[in-house]
Every structure is written in C-alpha cells, then in structure tokens.
Amino acid sequence: MAGIYIHIPFCLKKCYYCDFISFPDIEKENEYTQSLIKEIHLQKDILKTKEWSTVFFGGGTPSLLSLNNLGKIIDELALYIDFNKIKEFTIEANPKTLTSEKLQFYKVKNINRLSLGVQTFNLRELKAIGRIHTPQDAIDTVQLAKGQGFDRISIDLIYGLPFQTLETLMESLEITYSLGINHISFYGLQVEEDTPLERMILSKELTIPDEEIQENLYLAGVEFLIKRGFKHYEVSNFALGNNIALHNYNYWLYKDYLGFGVSSYSKLGNKRYANTDNLDEYCFKLNQNNLPIKEVEILTNKEMEFEQKMLSLRTHRGLKLDEGKNIEVVKDLIYNELAYIEKDRLKLTAKGYLVSNEIINKLC
Question: Which GO BP terms, alphabetically (predicted)?
C-alpha cells in the first residue's frame, strides 16, 4: 500500500517556531492550484499503476484553500486513482479556519479525517508561539466537526513551550481527552535556526523549559495518555483503538509515497526525490510542462536496510533481534530501562524514545 501527499504552503500567519515551507502569499492560491493540477496530470501513469491507500493534504494550512480550488485538485486526482480504495483521507487544519460549510464540503469529497494544529489549550502559550486561534476556537472547532460527523480527529500538542508548566500541560491533555479525541500527536518544541522564536530566545524575550524539564513533561504526557487507554505506537503518536494515522504509519513501515506540491518528497522503491522549495520556480516549471524536481537520490540496499530499522525502532513494532549481535548494547538498554524485549523484538520504552537517535546509531 502507498500514500499520496499534497502540500498546500499557504498560511494566514507563520508561527514563530515554524521553519516549514509556507508562505502568506494567499493571493497565489489560484496559480498554485493550477500548477498542482498540472503536476498530478504529469504523474498520471504512476498514479494509475499503483494501489493507493491514503491521501494527506498537509501544509501550511490546507484548510485555507477555497472549496473551489480544493475540489479541482481532488477531482483531478480522482481521474487516476480509485477513491473507493482510499482508507484514510486527511486534511490538516488550523482551528481558526474551519467552518460548517468547509466541513460539509470535506464530507462530500470523502475526506474522513481531520488533523488539527492546536498545540496547546493555554492562551498565554498560544500567544507566545504566534498561533492565531484561541483555546475556545479549538474546542468549538472539535465540537463543530463532531457535529458534522467527523469521528476521526487528531490533535497536535507541543510540550516544552514558553511559559508551559506540568500543570498547564496536564490541563491541555485533560481538555483534549474530554473532547473525545482518538488520536494525539505529542511533539517536543524544536527551536529552529533563523525563526522568530530562536531570535526571541537569544534576546531573552522568551525562555523555554530546560532539557530535564522537557523530558519530564514528555514522560508525564506519555503516562497520562497510556493510563487513559491510548496506544503509544510511535515516538510522538498515540491512538485509541484502531485510530492510528495510517498515512504516517505507511512512512514508518517504509512504504512508497508520492508527493505533490512545493517542497514535497517522494519515495518509490529505491528512488527518493524532492521538489523545489521555491514557490515561483515550482509554478514556472510546471507551466513549462516540466516536473519541479530539484534532486533525486538512488538508495543502496544498505541505506534502505538502515532506514527500515531506524523507522521500525521508532514505533511499537520495535526491531527484530539479530542473534549474537549487539548483545552487550541490548543488555545495557534493558538494564537502564530504555528498552525491553517482547517475543523476538527489541522495543523502546518512553525513556528510550527520548534518546532514540543515540540508540539507533548503536543498533542500526
């Protein structure tokens, strides 16, 4: 099974911590939509010959797209893939941008999952990172979506935010749980270079919790969610029942994916390639009937084996133990409560996930 990713790079306002490829140039939406449609058309042979299981509109803020443009993109895709076989169709949304009209349209177009960038239910923390919505906006959006029949809603939460304490994090988790959310992505704040957040931290305008506090926040969040029945199935992802994020899980299973849009990535077999991250160049190339690919990488068997092991160790599947290999490393991980063995697989604990990169380097 394989996944399709479509990148919508527009935002009303870029958050202070964000280094994703996104732009406030919403006036370019129509031009970009036509370029996306052209790219989909140019890739029609690949789209027709593979079996696709998921579609994911990410960003940016895909929920900013006009319904007319969103419909055009989906209709073009529907010319080449069978939407009856799509198990999961997700759109990312900012709570401030969803309306009853949009949600009804999403239903008509077979979108069956929403991913909401809430980040926190604390107003002071939201303002500190430049989010445009309020806690009440997020609560109202969830209730509105549920009222429209969306039963698969994921919420993103961030730990390690400016002004965040264990108490405010627990409040955000309690509100999330009380809303009946069945999937949570729980990320640590990343302070990226040359972002407004980094500049505010360097100038002492803002401070963030130190590394030890951030680790404690993560572990407390994991404990909270597991106690309430969530399955911790990937470093930062938690699901109730069978509500795992199928699209992202395809990535972690090392399945193929095809990306459309500026800065998107694709992997087909041993070939991985990336589109340009320049919006004007993306549109220009497609206007000339050329794919906007900026780089292509052919993966060796050794590279693919490493990536498969690395991704597997980041999930609840864990890593199949190779008899006689890394015995001392494995013993040390278990002794330090960073990992455990279940059947013939080594799996990381929550503490282990915190240092997963170091563990991966030792084992893979």
Answer: porphyrin-containing compound biosynthetic process
Cα separation of 124 and 161, whole Å? 10
Q: What are the tokens at 299? A: 């993966």
**Tokens of residue 360, six digits:** 């991966």
Mean per-residue pLDDT over the chain, rounded: 95
Do residues 16 and 50 lie in contact, with contact meaning Cβ atoms separated by under 8 Å? no
Q: From CA 218, how far away is CA 293, in angstroms rounded? A: 37
* HSE-up of residue 88 (Cα within 13 Å, Cβ side): 27
Distance CA 308, CA 252 (A): 8
Q: What is the DSSP letter of 27?
A: G
**Closest residue by Cα to residue 282 from 57, 2, 9, 44:** 9
pTM for the model stands at 0.95
DSSP 315: B
Q: E strand or H helix at 99, and its extent?
A: none
pLDDT tens, 126-147?
999 999 999 999 999 999 999 9
285 to 39, 158, 308: CA distances (angstroms): 10, 37, 33
Domains of the chain, CATH where assigned: 2-252 (3.80.30.20), 304-363 (1.10.10)
